[in-house]
């Protein structure tokens, strides 16, 4: 069961969205069952902007968690997810920014205050360590300390990721 908004968003009725007044979801986004968005955290510096911002055509799969990053004690900073982003099943997002056209596969852990720039692919089960910056057009896989790697992606991924995000919206 879905709730559909006038801007084309589809939000599962059993998605856990806390602090909805602090969350901005742009048009044509999909939030699947069991996904949780924690918009009810206390920000370190009061701002007029949202705690969680999700760009157009983004797709949050089941059981993913969007948790604003911790800056100091129990105070958080905002999290921004760009347009045409796909967040995989069972993925935990605690970072500051995900750029546009990013695919994050299932079971990833994106740790506190990391930044992922545009046109990246984060492979299944990857752990992105705290405060790491992933440059544009990167493929990231593995776990730090064991097999963590950051490689380059072709410029063709820009259009491929955008197309994939739009197709997912049509399939839902």
TrEMBL record:
Where is the protein situated, by its record's location annotation?
Cytoplasm, Cytoskeleton
Q: Which InterPro entries match?
A: DCTN5, Trimer_LpxA-like_sf
Reply yes or no: does the keyword Transferase apply.
no
Keyword Cytoplasm applies = yes
Q: What organism is recorded for this protein?
A: Suhomyces tanzawaensis NRRL Y-17324
Q: What is this protein called?
A: Dynactin subunit 5
One Pfam family name is: DCTN5
Cite the entry's keywords alphabetically: Cytoplasm, Cytoskeleton
The text of the family note is: Belongs to the dynactin subunits 5/6 family. Dynactin subunit 5 subfamily.
């Amino acid at each position: 069961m879905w709730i559909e908004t006038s801007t084309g968003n589809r939000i599962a009725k059993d998605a856990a969205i806390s602090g909805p007044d602090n969350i901005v979801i742009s048009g044509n986004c999909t939030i699947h069952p069991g996904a949780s968005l924690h918009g009810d955290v206390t920000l370190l510096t009061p701002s007029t902007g949202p705690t969680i911002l999700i760009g157009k055509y983004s797709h949050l799969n089941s059981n993913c968690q969007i948790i604003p990053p911790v800056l100091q004690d129990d105070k958080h900073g905002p999290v921004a997810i760009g347009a045409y982003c796909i967040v995989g099943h069972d993925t935990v997002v605690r970072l500051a920014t995900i750029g546009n056209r990013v695919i994050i596969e299932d079971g990833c852990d994106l740790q506190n205050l990391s930044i992922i720039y545009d046109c990246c692919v984060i492979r299944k089960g990857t752990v992105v360590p705290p405060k790491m910056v992933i440059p544009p057009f990167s493929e990231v896989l593995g776990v730090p300390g064991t097999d963590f790697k950051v490689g380059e992606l072709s410029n063709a991924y820009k259009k491929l990721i955008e197309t994939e995000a739009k197709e997912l919206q049509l399939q839902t």
